[in-house]
Amino acid sequence: MSTFSRLLNSLVHQKDIAVYPMTQYCGIDRTLMYKYLNGKDYPREQAIVDRMADFMRLSPSESEELLTAWQIEKIGWKEWNSRRNVEDFLLNLPDISDFSKISKTSGGSSAKQTTNAPSASNSLQELQGKHDRHANGSFARACYPDCRALPTQTALNNVISQVIMDEIQKENGRLCLMLQPDYDYLFHLLMGLGEYEHQLPIDHILCLGNSSQSDKAVQDHNLVYLQKILPLYVRALDYNIYYYYDAVESHFSNLNGLSCLILTSSCAVTCTSDFQSGILYGKPEIVQMLRKHFDTCREKCSPFFSPIHSIEDTCEMILKFFSENDEYYSLQPEPCIIPFLTPDLVERIIRPDLPGRAELISLLNDFFRRRKDSVFTENYHIFHTTPGLRRFMETGRSYEIPEDLYVPFSPEDRKLLLYRLSPFFPERYHLLRGPLENLPQNFHLWANASNGYMMFTNRKKETVYLLFTEPGLLTSFIDYLKNLEEKYLYTGEECHHLIEELLEHV
Questions:
Q1: 393 CB contacts (<8 Å, ≥6 apart)?
Q2: Where are the alpha helices (DSSP H) in 261-407?
Q3: Three-state secondary structure call for residue 108
């Protein structure tokens, strides 16, 4: 029997439901209902499941459980679980507008850890205090022993904070990590480093899972890891991550010993994957050997992201990203206005005092012209939010364009752009409703079968593009958006009513 049929049988017996009256209420044949109960078939429409729930007078939680079982039966456990994980990821994105959310979305307390990780601000205060003591000369720079046991998590955490503080004071300091990003104490310390003027280069090697489990509800570790490392980019750290594939649980759990490495220019720490104990090495020969090992491993890995910072590189990258035959999916707060920008609009919005303004306008006009054709294809799907659309109409600001390049669109130009957009609702521009309406206002995701990028504003108000090609993530994001449930989308009539309302009040 299937999950759905087992649950349906259980509810029928638990509630003492007569099957024949329920079939009449649902408007289906009695034979078909018994097929549902025996696991030989399942309802093809959600309306039948809803009527079953109504007839059995299920509670909201029972109705949700029955609907979930039906969805699993309809699309398969693996697909259902993948879409659930993508939705959890999207609903817990870091938001630059409120740094207090970053520590919440960076993973919380690990089940493997017994000591609560400090907040990013507390970590910074702790490091700053140590920095002041060093600056006052009351403490000399750390001198590490050849080898020292770190038998407890407290001892491990204390050494980690000391070696990071020592490294950030060095002109040519460097931090190398070979571990999974579920060491909450370490990652909270790293977020605190975003407040320092001196940037500490951080190279991180991460293992991504190369298999999926479809026999039980599991977290997508790769999405969880992505969720935990994004705050470091939001904090504008000098952070570079590389990945390889392996069976994560077997590689970093069980009896694999000291499988994690934290390396600076003068010492190394190896520790268990649950971050409960480790060994500190200060002997130069050992540190040098481990550094050589790290560099060799990094050469065998792929960059997780390829960050892009300049407007010229951004335009070149995006034009390469879009081709005629690929299908594109975008998730962002405000609608994509790029294909509707004409030379007269560009002339009005680009700041008059901008150095190299004429060259920039020429570059942007060529870029917008080449992007314009993409919106007229059937392969272009933009998912955005009502708050994002309203915010654009109220402020004239779009996060698609770096804030320091332009002045806000005038009310007249906002109306003009909305007029140009309106024919594409809801076939290619889709308005989100429900929990997805609360996307961070600075987050954009684009994906096709072979490439993707995330765009957001970091702590320094810089627009950052992170390109990625990891196929598992691309497949998950596209599958989720391609199969987004109707309950998460406004109808065409609702879209056009909202557009009329906005045009009247701007």
A1: 414, 418, 502, 506
A2: 284-299, 311-321, 343-349, 357-372, 386-395
A3: coil
CA 443, distance to chain mean position in Å, is 9
Helices (H), 235-272: 248-252
Per DSSP, what are the bridge partners of residue 465?
308, 455
Give the residue carrying structure tokens 């959890």: 88
Angle, vertex CA 264, rays to CA 261 and CA 268, nearest 5: 45
Which amino acid is present at 243? Y
User: C-alpha angle 303/243/474, rounded to 5°?
Assistant: 75
What's the chain's Rg over C-alpha atoms? 27
pLDDT along the chain (506 residues), means of 10: 90 92 92 92 93 94 93 90 91 66 40 42 48 44 86 96 92 93 93 79 91 59 89 90 84 75 96 94 95 96 82 74 77 91 93 90 84 72 94 92 90 95 91 89 88 86 85 92 91 93 86
d(C-alpha 95, C-alpha 271), whole Å: 32
**pTM given for the model:** 0.82
CA distance 161 to 131: 11
Q: Which of 88, 108, 255 is nearest to 183 (CA)?
A: 108
Compute the distance between CA of residue 464 and CA of residue 315 in angstroms, rounded to an integer.
13
Cis before 335? omega within 30: no
